[in-house]
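Aggregate trends can hide what the representation actually does to any particular protein. This step matters because it turns folding into a mapping between discrete strings. For completeness, the protein is quoted in full, as a sequence line and a line of structure tokens:
=====
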Amino acid sequence: MSVPPSITVEPSDVTAESGSTVVFTCSASGEPQPDIVWHRQENHEASSLVVPSRSVRGQLTVENVTPKDEGVYVCEAVNEAGRASASASLAVHGKRDTDCMNSGASLSAP
């Protein structure tokens, strides 16, 4: 008998420094055991592209984060009986913002 997926561990929102490594964790139950796929949400729609980072057993690792990595990451559990999803956001603050340094832009505090 098939049982639709249910998210058992939801990913948490993360704030990280530029250049660091971030790990999101997501787990699900169901019968058969659901596959976990990660997507990055853009403009309130999940992109069709799987996040280009390592995903192992429900963990998504995003290495050397930059402000371009900011956004909402969606964990989707899928099996033959259905799907379930949960999301978390990534915020990055610039310890090493090389994009700004290379473009000649300057950062200043108010």
Notes: The longest helix spans residues 98-103. The beta strands are 3-9, 14-17, 22-25, 27-31, 35-42, 45-50, 54-56, 59-62, 71-79, 82-93.
